[in-house]
Amino acid sequence: MTVSIIVPHLNRCVLLERLLDSIQGLNLAPDIEVEILVVDNGSMDGSIEMASGRGARVLPLGRNVGVSRALNRGIEATRGEYIALINNDVELEPNWLRGLLTQLRDTKHWFATGKMLVRDDPKRIDGAGDAICRGGAAWRLGHGKLDGPAFAVSRRTYFPAATATLFRRAFFERVGLFEESFFAYLEDVDLGFRAALADLPGVYVPEAVAYHRSGGTTGVWSPQMVEWLTCHQLLLLAKFYPWRLFVRFGCAILAAQLLWAALAISRGRLGGWARGLVQGLWRFASFRRHSRPMRAEACRLAEVLESAEAEIARVQQATGWDRYWKWYFLLARPPLGVRS
């Protein structure tokens, strides 16, 4: 059995070297063959030579075509029955792949994602899987919280975190590849919406541990990051929300987007947020026209979003409320049982 590990990459040779070292240190069963493919978006720092010297195959794209396109070219160029997508700023525990692979081989889940800890503060969660609220804002569950019982329980999810997740190849054959108009950020949330509509669930595996240097490639709260996130949140609404959900979740959508604006501006990123808003509104009608969300999908999607939002609330209630989510649940008219 072959597992294809795909790493999208641009410069930051040191980060890639650490990831490749951790891949080489994985504990694997004798029947597992691993192929490593580094999809390079035009590195100029010796990354290609280093990766080749460590046994990885390199697919040079020559220029920065974005994360989504790099991932898609990697999926197309590999042959494994299972596909692991891993950011270059991640390091893996030796049993990471074994834990995820065991879940996929023994269950009917379509992907598996593990516990991500902060590399420079491993007592804290970087993400315990992803979730999205009714208002269209995504959250890496537990981000910034101390690790504890709230993150020790396996659960079903529809939202894979492309930071480090193992997929069945058949998953992409069913739902398609990444949305290439999303240059970076929320491309995995787009994939999660499609998984939810097709009812192809994944599983969170807390025993599969990896470490993430959040922002190690693009920078934490960079203007470009804020611009992409702002734009892509709007495009996700355009692509997947039938009009009846805009009515049903109107308060939640307004709360999520206004609070995101306030958060971005409070971090000194007014310019990035404004550019993202203009781009998102400019592309909204065209994006919606080409995707045409169906009324028949509204009930299914509403159920998934309410369940994911309840998971966010559960983690917040167990670990302490972040300001964003406290205000969101105050303003968004949450379902009964959620208290901020």
Briefly say what this structure is.
With 340 residues, the protein is of the alpha/beta class. It folds into two domains: 2-212, Spore Coat Polysaccharide Biosynthesis Protein SpsA, Chain A, CATH 3.90.550; 223-331, no CATH class.
If you had to describe this structure to a student in words, what would you say it looks like?
- This protein has 340 residues and is an alpha/beta fold.
- It has 2 domains: 211 residues, Spore Coat Polysaccharide Biosynthesis Protein SpsA, Chain A (Alpha-Beta Complex); 109 residues, no CATH class.
- 45% of the residues lie in helices and 20% in strands.
- It is built from 12 helices and 12 strands.
- The strands form 2 sheets. Strands 1, 2, 3, 4, 5, 6, 7, 10, 11 and 12 form a 10-stranded mixed β-sheet that branches.
- Helix 7 packs parallel to helix 10.
- The longest helix has 22 residues.
- The chain is globular.
- The N and C termini lie far apart (47 Å).
